[in-house]
Amino acid sequence: MMPIFEHGGELEKLERLGISPENLLDFSVNLNPLGPPEELLRTLRERISEIALYPEPRSEALVAKLSEKLKVPRGNLVVSNGSNQLIYAVYRALRPGRALILQPTFSEYRKAAALCGTYIIDFVLSPEDGFSVPLEELHKALESSDLAFICNPNNPTGSLLERELLLALVRRFPDTTFVVDEAFSDFSDVPSSVVGNVLEFENLVVLRSFTKIFSIPGLRLGYAAAGENVASALREQIEPWSVNRLSQLAGEIVLEFERFVEQTRGFISEERDFLFSGISKVEGLSPFPSHANFLLVRCEALGASSLQARLLEKGIFVRDCSNFVGLDGHFFRVAVRKREENERLISALSEVADGSESPHGPGHGLARRQEPDNHRIVQDILSGRI
Question: For position 147, which CATH number holds?
């Protein structure tokens, strides 16, 4: 059987089966397809010797620069080893009795709640309604919730809760702490961030990540913005020296890369439209509109795991979404990549959907170097021999 993939980018699990990730086109991980900014890479190479020095215990220099950039006081900011560290810190700091989680969404929200013994309210949105939020039902659920976790734009659906609607909820339910994960907000062409509103609402916590937009998952860097009391409680849950020196340096550098973020947003918007259009033309596949750098797709004929395995034969890896709460085995997610790569995905999906092969012959392009071994291994997986 295929291994269970909890998140995108878990290529090491494929490697254990004998599938080399070296030549795979990885559509499972939602990173900026433009890669890390070259200026960042150059600076890190020049200052690599600083790994011999201790980092600042609380990333004080980065906090100061964030404060200046965001117009938010330093006491309201907490830098962390990736925003995922903050997800767990939120539950430890606030100890909510009942947490509402808009589903389907990032699985770590639920895992962190369970670890703290928090009662979980899964508020599941329907794909039949385009994952729209039924406000009347949501209001009822929020009345009995101490905390609400909202990913905006949401992973894996790409859906977006409008900024004014989100703030209206925060205002209406002052006894509920709203934790808004904005890991993908830099990719959206609809302004939605509520970072600037944390001074207005004591019950608002915003999580941000440098990982996605700057394509630096190996460095692990994120931050939270919150009311001063909540920020202080979060800070107590983050161990000193959690963020390494190169990550701190990277954060200070990329805060100046506004043009890079704008260029990325325009690039993603164009390629997302292209990918959406191309997948929509493949019989049996239905992509959902997205405000992020990925698309959720429903496949009617094939199960997502079978489709994932067959694409692996062609050197392409996608994210099977059957382990998301509220989604069944007919949903998969693909990242938005560069044009040639997106074209290859669309072509491969068309071949898998109708059972045909590429007009250029088996193993055309990137898949050529991988297909013979991949084909044998995947067939073993599907037949149960692995």
Answer: 3.40.640.10
